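To make this tangible, this section ends with a sequence with its C-alpha cells:
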Amino acid sequence: HSMNLVDDFAFPLPIIVISEMLGIPLEDRQKFRVWSQAVIDFSDTPESLEEYKYKIGEFAEYLEYLVRKKRDEPAEDLVSALIQAESEGTKLSIEELYATIMLLIVAGHETTVNLITNMTLALLNHPEQLEKLRQNADLIDSAIEEALRFYSPVELTTLRWAAEPFTLHGQEIKRKDVVIISLASANRDYMVFSNADRFDIERKDNRHLAFGHGSHFCLGAPLARLEAKIAIQTLLRRFEHIEIKGEREQIKWKGNFLMRALEELPLSF
C-alpha cells in the first residue's frame, strides 16, 4: 500500500480542524489549499503575479460571502464571534475582519501540514530515532519540539521594522529599517544547540524559535502541537512498517522562501 502523506493525511487533518473552528462549510474546504498557497508563494514572473492576483481575488470574494452569511445566520463559530466582537466599544473594521480570517485560515493549517510532513521525513531519515519513539511513546512531545527545531515549518518571519537603532554582529540597523528574521537559521545555531545539525528526539533545553518569540509568538502553537501529536501517534500506531517510496533524492522541497514545505511525501506501508 502507498500514499502521499501531504495530500492524504497531513493536509486533511488541519483543514478539518480550522474549518470546524471557523464555521466553514464542508464543501468549501478544499479551495483553501489553492488559496493559502497563493498567499505564501513567491511570485517572480508576470505570469505568476497575474495568477496570484486572480487567486487572491477569489479568496477575497469568498471571505465577503462567508462574512455576509455569518452576519445573516450567526452560529457557534469563530467567524461569527469575530463579527460580533468589540474592543473598548469598537468593532473590527471590515478590512481587519477579512485580514484576521485570512490569517487564521492560512496560518491555521499550512504550518501544521508542514510540521506533520517534516517530522515524518525527519523520523524516516533517522531510523534510530524513529525506533526510540516506537519503543517509548512518552518521547512524543520532545520529538515534536525537535522536529520544530530541525525542520522549522516557517523559515522566515514576516517583515519587521526596527523600533530603535542597534548593532548586531557588526551590522548597523537604523530605526525603521526593514528586518527579516531567519527562524530556521536560528534553530540550527551551534552557539545555542550542541550538535545543531543532528536530529535528536531526546534533546534537552530545546529553546527553538519555530513559533517566534515575545509579542510575535504564535497563538496557535498549542493547537499545532496537539494536531501533530495526534497525527504522528496515529501514523505510528496504524502502520508497523512505513518507509519512503522511491528514491529519497526525488523528494523535493517547495520553492518557497517563507515556509519549509515538501511538494509531496510518498510513503509505502
Notes: The chain has a mean pLDDT of 92. The longest strand covers residues 2-4. Residues 2-151+222-268 form a domain with the Cytochrome p450 fold (CATH 1.10.630.10).
